[in-house]
Amino acid sequence: MPDMVRVHVTADLPMRPLAMPFADRVELRFGKAFPVVLVVDRDAVPRLREILDEGWKALQASAARQEGGQ
Description:
By secondary structure, this protein is α+β, with helices and mostly antiparallel strands. The protein has one helix at 45-67, and strands at 15-20, 25-30, 36-41.
């Protein structure tokens, strides 16, 4: 398996966006003591939002199936 950084994002994890207009990017900062930063180019922001939405819909569908007993 290739090297990978895994960050577990929870509801209580501090998250802060920082717009970087001079670089045409957004920084998403996670955590405080040992922060992780995700740097996203402007052109990639819509795709990142789509991916997060797809993941959310998949979680919702799974939860609905489990509640329905399937």
